[in-house]
Write a structure and sequence with these properties.
Blueprint: E1 5-11, E2 16-24, E3 29-32, E4 40-43, H1 46-78, H2 80-93, H3 100-106
Antiparallel strand pairs: 1-2, 2-3, 3-4
Length: 107
């Protein structure tokens, strides 16, 4: 079994860099991106694997962004965010909120 190589893959649209783990598997190459578990690929060459990982990463990030936006819009429409905001304001006014430095000191 070949040693796992780590290769950075930069998504230009989302402006993020991810670390792909790749290895030769005899006659083909296997690759995955641990930070995005849905991204796993197999290809006949290392070069093609890296290109496939890059494409699948972008497709997955795009799908996740669209899903997040859809959920956000549903939350806005349902009024859930208004309830969350009202609860946060109530807690703030009751003195139940702290700045991050205070929270860190309490740990």
């Amino acid at each position: 079994m070949e040693k796992i190589k780590k290769v950075d893959i930069h998504d230009k649209v989302f402006e993020e860099t991810y670390t792909a783990h790749i290895r030769s598997n005899g006659t083909s190459w296997l690759g995955w991106i641990p930070e995005v578990p849905k991204v796993k690929c197999k290809a006949p060459t290392e070069g093609l694997l890296l290109k496939t990982l890059e494409n699948k990463l972008h497709q997955t990030l795009t799908a996740e962004e669209e899903e997040w936006e859809k959920q956000f819009q549903a939350d806005v429409k349902s009024g859930w965010l208004d309830q969350l905001s009202a609860s946060a304001l109530q807690n703030y006014r009751a003195g139940k909120c702290y700045d991050l430095e205070t929270v860190k000191k309490k740990r």
